[in-house]
Amino acid sequence: MENIKIIQQKDQLLYSSIIFNKPINKLSLPRILVIGGSSEKLKNVSLCYEALQNSNTTLTLALPDTLKQAVATLEAVFLHANPIGSVLKDNTDHLLDLASDANLLIIGVDMTLGSQAQIVVEKLLQECDKPVIVTDEVIKVFQFSPSILERSSKLILFLNTNSLVKIANYLKIPVKIRPDRGIYNRADLIKSIAGKQGQALAAVSRPGLRKNYFICHDSGQIICYDSKKPNEVGLVNFEGNDLSEYLGTVIGLVGSFLADYSNEIKDFTPKVLTACFIAKEFFAKQKSSQETSIKKIINSYL
């Protein structure tokens, strides 16, 4: 990838205006719908919930009803699910109603994607006109309906490298990985997918293809990419932190900064980098056993 500009968020906050302009009035707080969880997995969706609770947003959490006893302290909407906590398709209309009131959706954190849950997620992605963050757990939806990637201009793929490779395969896009190129390999992979040159979409009759947004989490790094700005990527290194342990927190913070009352995605890269900066500060203070909260860290930059 030539002439790529890497915007790296290091130890000094690059975009203080992003925090300063974040809504604080309760009447103007963006509304977020989180759909996730399963009988076997709950950690990251709980971390996502906690991050959003501390980030000036109005939150609706939708979980499978198999978790009612496990999350008695969380305020949640419970969905009909099978014994392993995979939601059933009779939840579709209810979730579409909840989505209509939201400014941003987060779909997939800790979710088990059974056949009926796949139908639910596909329907949401097809009919929802709001920004949607999709995580690794539900990417199989795109294997059977790759055209969703083209139809939505507000899709935010929050995926690891393996999931991105699967997306490329679904779209029949050749993947080229060259040794010792690190971030450039992932940036090339994202840019190839963003270009949507695969056979699966070659027959689309409409002129022009809409743009999506990408966040790749891997190897202690977050890379973000806005398809409207094809020659730059954002980068945050989480030194000494295993992102898989705290991924729910990062997803929640990213969602809280991207959610906008206009239902549009604005300042994508600055907002993702700012959210990751707050996450790094929070993790560092936790590691050093300092008493803190996400809300306190955000307020300290106002």
Structure characterization notes:
The chain has twelve helices and ten strands. The chain is α/β, with parallel strands linked by helices and 302 residues long. Strands 1-10-9-8-7-6-5-2-3-4 form a ten-stranded mixed beta sheet, with helices on both faces. α4 links the parallel β5 and β6. It is globular. About 4% of the residues have low confidence.
Key words describing this protein structure:
302 residues, UDP-N-acetylmuramoyl-L-alanine:D-glutamate ligase, 12 helices, 39% helix, globular
Secondary structure topology:
Elements: E1 5-8, H1 16-20, E2 31-35, H2 43-53, E3 58-64, E4 77-79, H3 92-100, E5 104-107, H4 115-127, E6 132-135, H5 140-144, H6 148-151, E7 155-159, H7 161-170, H8 183-195, H9 199-202, E8 213-218, E9 221-226, E10 232-237, H10 243-258, H11 268-287, H12 294-300
Parallel strand pairs: 1-10, 2-3, 2-5, 3-4, 5-6, 6-7, 7-8
Antiparallel strand pairs: 8-9, 9-10
Helix pairs in contact: 2-10, 3-4, 7-8, 10-11
Briefly say what this structure is.
The chain has 302 residues and is an alpha/beta fold.
Query: Low-confidence segments, ≥5 residues, pLDDT <50?
Result: 197-209
Find the CATH topology. UDP-N-acetylmuramoyl-L-alanine:D-glutamate ligase
Strand content: 15-25%
Name the overall outline. Answer: globular
Instruction: Please give the oligomerization state of what you see.
Output: single chain
Tally of contiguous helical segments: 12
Broad CATH class: Alpha Beta
Instruction: Give the helices and strands as they follow along the chain.
Output: EHEHEEHEHEHHEHHHEEEHHH
CATH superfamily: Ribokinase
- The computed structural class is alpha/beta
Average pLDDT level: 88
| Second-tier CATH architecture | 3-Layer(aba) Sandwich
Widest sheet, order of strands: 1-10-9-8-7-6-5-2-3-4
According to DSSP, the number of beta strands is 10
Report the biggest beta sheet as strand number plus sense, adding barrel if it closes: 10 strands, mixed
Total domains, how many? 1
Distance between the termini: 37 Å
CA radius of gyration is: 18 Å
